[in-house]
Amino acid sequence: MADFFVAGCDTGVGKTLVSCMILHALNQRGMPAFGMKPVATGCQVIKGKTRNQDAMALQRFSSWPVPYEWVNHYAFAPPVAPSIAAKQSDVRVEMHVIRADFCRLRANGGHVVVESAGGWYTPISDEQYMKDIALALDIPVILVVPLKLGCLNQAMLTSRAIRQDGGRLVGWVANQMATDLDHVEEQIGMLDRCLNIPRIASVPVLSELSDDTIVSMANRDLGPDTAFGQLLGPVL
Questions:
Q1: Active-site residue identified among 15, 37, 87, 131
Q2: For residue 185, what is the domain's CATH number?
Q3: Among this protein's residues, is 15 annotated catalytic?
Q4: Taking Cα atoms as reference points, which of 150, 148, 205, 151 lies closest to residue 181?
């Protein structure tokens, strides 16, 4: 199965963008795919229901509609760490619930792209972290690295943590976040060498983030004759 866990060095680094790009690329290959963001904070109340903008984007790029709760079971309004938001809501994030939703999406006929909230060690309870979702689902990890000051240290620490924890890190994405960053190509080259995994996409600074932009980036970077296309072989 071409399932992936999209992790990031931090929050707000482009994980939703990359997850939607992957969903589009899989759909273009005729491989049904569904997005999932098991835990989300900073949600809004829309028509009386708590909804997350990232999760709704994943829904739009999925092959066909599925219940929102399968995509984002734990939706919290406060824009804080999931463990804090869950406590405030008197809710416990349960791994068996997340696994059940993942299995429902798989059984619905396709592959699943799971988006993390925050970084690898973002807590979801007193005992568990985002990493535990990736490990429980046992799916390959793609790391989104924001190209900004300090990204080299962040990326190397995160990649080391993923590997030491037993995660299968199979690819990374360079997402240029800052317009004034110097030596961009040199930093990308250093990350290629240090991470030692395929770079499946290089996202430039975007003037706007729209569904059309996501489709354009996916068609450019994740086509059949790209590193992502080659990655699908051993993953499948």
A1: 37
A2: 3.40.50.300
A3: no
A4: 148
